[in-house]
Amino acid sequence: MDLDLRAPVGELTRCLVDVPSVSGDEAALADAVQAALGRIGGLRVERDGDAVVARTSLGLPSRIVLAGHLDTVPIADNLPSRVEGGRLYGCGTSDMKAGVAIALRLAATLPLTEPGALRHDITWICYDHEEVEAARNGLRRLAAQHRDWLDGDLAILMEPTSGEVEAGCQGTLRVIVRLGGRRAHSARSWLGDNAIHKAGALLQRLAAYEARSVTLDGCTYREGLSAVRVDGGVAGNVIPDACAVTVNFRFAPDRTPQAAVEHVREVLAGYECEVTDLSGGAPPGLAAAPAAAFVAATGRTPVAKYGWTDVARFAELGIPALNYGPGDPNLAHTREEYVELAAIDEGERLLRGYLTGALTA
Amino acid sequence: MDLDLRAPVGELTRCLVDVPSVSGDEAALADAVQAALGRIGGLRVERDGDAVVARTSLGLPSRIVLAGHLDTVPIADNLPSRVEGGRLYGCGTSDMKAGVAIALRLAATLPLTEPGALRHDITWICYDHEEVEAARNGLRRLAAQHRDWLDGDLAILMEPTSGEVEAGCQGTLRVIVRLGGRRAHSARSWLGDNAIHKAGALLQRLAAYEARSVTLDGCTYREGLSAVRVDGGVAGNVIPDACAVTVNFRFAPDRTPQAAVEHVREVLAGYECEVTDLSGGAPPGLAAAPAAAFVAATGRTPVAKYGWTDVARFAELGIPALNYGPGDPNLAHTREEYVELAAIDEGERLLRGYLTGALTA
Q1: Which H or E element spans position A12?
Q2: What is the pLDDT tens value at each position of chain A, 361 positions in all?
Q3: Which of A172, B169, B269, B335 gives B305 a disulfide partner, CB atoms 3.0 to 4.6 angstroms apart?
Q4: Residue B130 falls in the annotated catalytic set
Q5: Residue to substitute from A73, A175, A185, interface B, most B β-carbons within 10 A
Q6: Which CATH class is domain B171-279?
Q7: Mutation test of the interface with chain B: which of A203, A305, A323, choosing the one with the most B Cβ atoms within 10 A?
Q8: Do domains A9-168+282-356 and A171-279 have the same CATH topology?
């Protein structure tokens, strides 16, 4: 399949969306992206698994990374895409092929080989397996195996933000609290020890928890501690000897992962907590010059990112990173997912201006 | 598979236990029981689903029903059975294959065709689906479709009673309390309304409930109100909009089923309760002559039955019924379930004496 990266960005988005690429099934799209980038002069194109990385080598004093994942959540009867009322509907439109289309069109239309035309060297990263468990994440794999491909002074992750600059991200921690007891026939309940009843006090504690907010670089990060699963019971006539509550803590990036674990253990004192999932947050990192310049170019007031994103992986490598994309994050993973075509145009215009220096504060 | 019903009763129990028969999976055991009973002269054997009924037709003035269920609760790493220190361990040993083994061995060893050898005609009922919701209960099905198969002047249900005569039974009521809420991404938990958190106050109320005791015909019935299942959660990153708690109320037979429902609605005021399962209890019913004669033959003082049992179905049909079996009811549904081999022998001896008239008060 041939991708025309010079097509209008809305059309290009539609082409990308109509190549299904549910996590684990990104090969066809990655092949097409690799082939299309390979036809552009001035780019060094690399491939690892179903991740494609392309870089200029102009020797400019700074490098901007434009990153986006190629995969989508499972299709929900919402492919092929359709255009209606200025919107492109379909799986992956908002999250995040519109952002990927902007980045790819810039690769094909910026004057990459014209001396003085660009303010920064540029790296394009299109990766796989973002919508599944962290262990399979393509950006994580690139960081581990090709650290140098990710180098840069600012990474712009084109996740849906409705055109806002969403800085840094929260961390996320999941623990399972397992409550024990003693089985008995429910007709002789006094002989047992009901594990489900013990969850009452735990859930009351979670319900009463007052989550903290913290402001960093002008961005307010609001935390949350929530039960996301509860499961207990043996049979309808048995006093249960086990009940498990899964708790998700979304924490502000001023806490280290370890501090987040300690906080949850403190809140849930008296209960055994098994950590099942832990990813640190990313500080806003807006002080760094390239980030400040990007924010100025957008003319927007940056806000905190609610939700863990791969900006945390860049932050961990010491690369300032922010989220910026045309999609509406609230539509991500819904059947009704869409992206405003005008928002994609606007995103392309803004990024082009920033990269060429035509747009400054 | 061939069952030797003439084997010593402990061995026969072990054979029955080692044929797994979790509710819904009784066919293999029912087939074996049907085939074995079919080889005995003087018995008319019937089959309905996985229930097997066998009857003598000696024209005697009274008929005793020996009834037991073939199914067990889910296996808890406790099969195959093992013998240790005079005990047979394993799923279904106490509840209630030991009782079934006594009844079946009597079928094979009593002189069913010898004139004058028996005091009563006898009916054997081995049925399915006792350990699950009432709608699937095999005895209920038989009562609805083959009422005449159940006829008798006294039904002895061989549920575990440690060799005691356990009179009547508690009623049982199950309700589901469904808690609602509003979904949101767990990174923006304040936009949602956590249904699992709401279960906290409900479970606390159940944990604090003080159960009543009541004495009828000298038998004390103790009640209990217990959560037996809790289930909530959408995904690890979603504030859940639904959580369901199943509550089981075991009530004394002085409450009607309707009064039991009203009591639970009162205790759980403020929550919507959906009744999923309701079975009335059975009064002790020790006044009827065949019951009094059986009690006298055992030489024991009858006590209240803790647990709803199918004696209530016989009581509903106007057939006096009591529980009598060799297993310890406190071990029913536990991982450590066992039965004393000596208690099975004693149960067989006592019933044989009662049925042949060798044992009287």
Answers
A1: helix A9-17
A2: 799 999 999 999 999 999 999 999 999 999 999 999 999 999 999 999 999 999 999 999 999 999 999 999 999 899 999 999 999 999 999 999 999 999 999 999 999 999 889 999 999 999 999 999 889 999 999 999 999 999 999 999 999 999 999 999 999 999 999 999 999 999 999 999 999 999 999 999 999 999 999 999 889 999 999 999 999 999 999 999 999 999 999 999 999 999 999 999 999 999 999 999 999 999 998 988 899 999 999 999 999 988 889 999 999 999 999 999 999 988 888 889 999 999 999 999 999 999 998 765 4
A3: B169
A4: yes
A5: A185
A6: alpha beta
A7: A203
A8: no
pTM: 0.76
Predicted ipTM?
0.81
> Does the annotation mark B223 as catalytic?
no
CA gap B246, B271 in Å, rounded: 12
Tokens matching residue A38: 């390979």
E-assigned strand segments in chain A = 44-48, 51-55, 63-69, 82-84, 87-89, 121-127, 154-157, 166-167, 171-180, 184-185, 213-216, 219-222, 224-233, 238-239, 242-251, 273-279, 303-304, 321-323, 338-340
User: HSE on the CB side for A280, CA within 13 Å?
Assistant: 16
Residue A226 forms contact with B (CB below 8 Å): yes
User: Token pair of A208, please?
Assistant: 């009463």
Residues of chain A found within 8 Å of residue B307, distances taken between Cβ atoms: 185, 187-188
Q: Which CATH superfamily is domain A9-168+282-356 in?
A: Zn peptidases (3.40.630.10)
Considering only alpha carbons, which residue of chain A is nearest residue B239?
A228
**Collapsed DSSP state (helix, strand, coil) of residue A266:** helix
In chain A, what are the helix, strand and coil shares in percent, each to the nearest 5? 35, 25, 40
- Asked if the C-beta of B304 comes within 8 angstroms of chain A's C-beta atoms, the answer is no
A357 contacts chain B (CB < 8 A): no
- Cβ contact B196:B232 at 8 Å: yes
**Chain B residues near residue A204 by CB distance under 8 angstroms:** 200-201, 204
Domain boundaries, chain A: 9-168+282-356, 171-279
Query: CB A235 to CB B200 under 8 A?
Result: no
Summarize pLDDT for A266-286 with one digit per residue, the tens.
999 999 999 999 999 999 989
Nearest to B74 among A201, A206, A235 (CB): A235
Q: For residue B233, give the nearest of A199, A233, A246 by CB distance.
A: A246
Task: For residues B86 and B293, give the distance between their C-alpha atoms in angstroms, rounded to a whole number.
Answer: 31
- Rounded to an integer, what distance in angstroms lies between the CA atom of residue A66 and that of residue B330? 66
Among residues B71, B128, B159, B337, the one annotated as catalytic is B71
**Residue A180 forms contact with B (CB below 8 Å):** no
Q: Does B135 touch chain A (CB under 8 A)?
A: no
